Amino acid sequence: xxxxxxxxxxxxxxxxxxxxxxxxxxxxxxxxxxxxxxxxxxxxxxxxxxxxxxxxxxxxxxxxxxxxxxxxxxxxxxxxxxxxxxxxxxxxxxxxxxxxxxxxxxxxxxxxxxxxxxxxxxxxxxxxxxxxxxxxxxxxxxxxxxxxxxxxxxxxxxxxxxxxxxxxxxxxxxxxxxxxxxxxxxxxxxxxxxxxxxxxxxxxxxxxxxxxxxxxx
Length: 217
Description:
Strand content: under 5%
Distance between the termini: 81 Å
Number of helices: 9
CATH architecture of the largest domain: Orthogonal Bundle
Radius of gyration: 21 Å
CATH class of the largest domain: Mainly Alpha
CATH topology of the largest domain: Tetracycline Repressor, domain 2
CATH superfamily of the largest domain: Tetracycline Repressor, domain 2
Order of helices and strands: HHHHHHHHH
Structural class: mainly alpha
Largest sheet: none
Number of strands: 0
């Protein structure tokens, strides 16, 4: 008996295998870093072969950049919805802060890995590709704050410094949570501890931006 496979099923199988490669690579990058992960390990972990990795992504760098692009695109969709919402600039910024904190703290291992890899200087071409992808998200946040300045809601401020303050604070908490938590057995992987630090981070950044952007000088 001959089993016929439809083109739709073949396409689904290809999509599933491609995603399996990305999922396996992300897991390995988080555990052992970019340098510590080989395409052979990715192939073994994903159940794919080396030819498939090369076909879909070209190289290990291509896999890494694609993972980053998917993350960046996911947040871009969220930012677009916030930006188009009929609410004040301050409410939009507060939603951005909440969304960004949740995305980062829901996957701290990935963010630590990303921060570590992008801080290294031996891969400038990879960094430039990711930086270009991130620039769109930066422009959307920039637009929210700039609109607030233009309509008189916000003070005239250095917009990119405000964005750096928000993002830098979140990254610092992920990398060094002991700076804001005195408890010695605090664990970012524990759901209860994570919930506490999420709420504190969101409240702090929302209060900080409100006071800085709206208090008349």
